[in-house]
Amino acid sequence: MEHGIDRIIVWAAHDTLDLITDRDWLIKRNPPALNAGLVRRTLWQRYCLSRKARTENCDVLFVPGGSYVGDFHPIVTMSRNMLPFEWPELRRYGWTLMTLKLLLLRRIQGRSFHCADGVVFLTGYARDAVQQVTGILRGSVKVIPHGLNSRFSHPPRAQRDISAYATDRPLRILYVSIVDQYKHQWVVVEAVGRLRARTHWPLALDLVGPSYPPALARLHRALDRWDPDRRWVSYQGAVPYGQLHGMYQLADVGLFASSCENMPNILLETMVAGLPVACSERGPMPEVLGNAGVYFDPLTPASIEQALERLVGSPELREDLARASHNRAQAFCWERCAEQTFGFLAQVASGIADSQSRR
Q1: Does residue 172 have a pLDDT over 60?
Q2: Mean pLDDT, residues 324-330 taken together
Q3: What is d(CA 347, CA 60) in angstroms, rounded to the nearest whole number?
Q4: 76 strand-pairing partners
């Protein structure tokens, strides 16, 4: 209401609509095609969505998925996937259907961004990297980071010296993320294995997340080499999102080794959970974490090993960084995201949105 918006219409599958609380100003639409497969959903967006938006007298259409093929204007979309726009990351998939899918997304989303009247980026890094591929976008551009679920928030705890841990009570390092080609879990296993062998520190590594089969095979090969009996590495697979906050509370150190991100929500969850963080130096991670973590090259086991040794070896450093990252994470909230998003939509609808830097 503060932005002059008095009605919001959501077209979505019924499963999605069921998750959205009913409001007086909210209208839910469930065309049968949106409950079907990808082909039917795409055809509906191409041939029906623009007409529906005109029929409902919409002033602006927001398509956060990043791909839009209609002719309605003004349109605002969102960049949420960096893989199609970073060649070194895309090439990790080799000659596979995944590569073909990412190349197709690169073309479709690049065109969508150029045709849009406004594009939301989640980080300044994503804004700059995408426009290096697409060229300067003609529409308005706005950087609006995502927020955090408050249930992940936990005050940083007092840190103990590594001598306070033992084989049956190890210091636990947690890495939450899908096992995928750009997440490098197998490099992390090697790094922790080398650190354990050299220092004899009681360290355990917990890996949590679903998997992409070729990457999971690489992880299992690393596990067979460095921890064949699975004594100190635990891969727990996917954990329901509603239970994930509990995993952070069982950990002593958080680790994030991705080399390609648009907005690293998992890194933010680790920060706000009160954990000291060892983090990849790639992509937008330094933009999000700032000086509140220890950085490494996610492709190099020795670099990860050195970062972990520095962090694990100093309880004072862990305590300082946990406090700093927890405080930094407070800036990422859904209320702020919502305020900025609806403000941008209202500006685009009225034709007065200001383009930000497109370097």
Answers
A1: yes
A2: 97
A3: 10
A4: 62, 118
Strands 61-63, 75-79: pairing is parallel
The CA distances from residue 345 to 30, 49, 69, in Å, are: 23, 18, 19
Q: How far apart are the C-alpha atoms of 299 and 186, rounded to whole Å?
A: 10
Q: How many residues does the chain have?
A: 359
Cis status, amide bond into 286, omega within 30 of 0: no
Helix (H, G, I), strand (E, B) or coil at 74: coil
Strand 203-208 relative to strand 171-176: parallel, antiparallel, unpaired? parallel
Residues 6+ positions from 259 with CB-CB distance below 8 Å: 89, 182, 183, 184, 280, 282, 283, 298, 299
**Residues 320, 294: contact at Cβ < 8 Å?**
no
Phi/psi at 119 (nearest 5 deg)?
-130, 130
Amino acid at 44: W
Type of residue numbered 165: Y
Q: Is the pLDDT of residue 317 over 50?
A: yes
Structure tokens at 132: 């290096």
What is the token pair recorded at 111? 């065109």
Does residue 4 have a pLDDT over 50? yes
Contact 121, 241 (CB under 8 A): no
Q: How confident is the model at residue 81 (pLDDT cuts 50, 70, 90)?
A: very high
Rounded to an integer, what distance in angstroms lies between the CA atom of residue 280 and that of residue 185? 12
CA distance 311 to 277: 8
The separation between CA 247 and the C-alpha centre of its own chain, rounded to angstroms, equals: 18
| Chain mean position to CA 356 | 23
Q: What is the pTM of this model?
A: 0.92
Q: Is 135 left (phi over 0), alpha (psi -120 to 50) or beta?
A: left
Cβ atoms of 171 and 313 within 8 Å: the answer is no
Mean pLDDT score, 22-39? 95
